[in-house]
Amino acid sequence: MGNVPWCVSTDIYNEASGQVAWVWNACGNTQRARVVIGWGPDSDCFTIPPGSGAAYHFTFGNYAKTETC
After folding, report:
1. Rounded to an integer, what distance in angstroms lies between the CA atom of residue 36 and that of residue 48?
2. Cβ–Cβ < 8 Å for 52, 8
């Protein structure tokens, strides 16, 4: 696992039922990434095509980072 490239970004949003980590792929090729949560369960590995995103909903823990997988 390593750092995602600069063209992959993650935004965290609060919802009534917890939080959402939205991972967006602005790269020119498909990326594989997962969301790492401190004190909570990490996401599975997402395969994200160019110009698309993936959402990971979590109810406890804190967003730590997004890494390749």
Report:
1. 16
2. no
Give dist(CA 33, CA 69) in Å, integer: 5
Strand partners, 53: 24
Residue-by-residue DSSP string for the chain: --BPPTTEEEEEEEETTEEEEEEEE-SSS-EEEEEEEETSPPP--EEE-TTEEEEEEESSSEEEEEEE-
Question: 36-63 burial, b if ≥16 CB within 10 A, otherwise e?
Answer: bbeebebbeebebeeeebbebebeeeeb
- Find how far residue 66's CA is from the centre of its chain: 5
pLDDT tens-digit map of 8-61: 999 999 999 999 999 999 999 999 999 999 999 999 999 999 999 999 999 999
